[in-house]
Amino acid sequence: MLITMILAFPLLLAILWVVGLSPWWWLYAFIGIFAFQLIMLVVYPNYIMPLFNKFTELQAGDLRNRLLRLGERTGFTARTILVMDGSKRSAHSNAFFAGFGKLRRIVLYDTLIDQLTPTQLEAVLAHEVGHYKLGHLPKTIAISAVCLFGSFAVMGWLVSSPWFVESFGFQYTSGQLAPILLLYVLLNNLVIFWLAPINNLLSRKHEYEADAFAKRAMGGDYKPLQQALRILTKKNLSNLTPHPLYSAFNYSHPTLVEREDALQKSV
């Protein structure tokens, strides 16, 4: 909470300040917030996460060699392979890469290493590499930018809309942003909820594509990834058969059954 306050308050003050400078304040605010989000993609894993978790180099051995060979095979180079002490909080498992270019690092939860065999871990990492090689991160950032732009454009319009402010009992004052921000925070989730199926549909599409990439990276053998997914589903207490409507609104990843079916059919 302290870090959030340190980072968020200056941004909020800057937005409130720029409102009085130009009718295009919302565009300048969008540019500033989006630039901040891009910077945080590098700052968060490199400087903030280490405040709460310990990161150590993956020791030399079969696993490290496997993962390095996978990187060479798929054209994915990383600065280092790190192990994060995720077990200090829960048994949840994960693997991800962070940073860009020469700063890119592969991160494995220690729980993941304990739960999976080296071959299964290689398949999981191949899935993460698939996200990178298939350009899923830039696509996600682009969609996020469009949504953020739309949000600020709407706020810019509502600031000059007396009917909206007065409908909620506020007294309208031209250029006053505080009521708009308050109402935005209160009503934003209501709008986002109905858009969730679209976002989740795209996310699940990316997961299927990354699974297919991992299968190809493992020489066409989907068994290691299938076995890993089964173990992770059990360890993370995931629901195997959620209602399709509930899944559409709440699940960014396909279920285990759906992923296994897609893996068997993928080329």
Tell me what the structure shows:
With 267 residues, the chain is of the alpha+beta class. The chain has helices at residues 2-19, 25-48, 62-74, 110-115, 118-133, 136-159, 162-167, 178-217, 223-235, 244-250, 256-265, and strands spanning 55-57, 80-84, 95-98, 105-109. The chain has a 4-stranded mixed beta sheet with strand order 1-2-4-3. Helix 5 (118-133) packs across helix 8, helix 6 packs antiparallel against helix 8 (178-217) and helix 9 (223-235) packs antiparallel against helix 11 (256-265). The longest helix has 40 residues, at 178-217. It is elongated, with a radius of gyration of 22 Å. It starts with a helix and ends with a helix. 21% of the residues are buried.
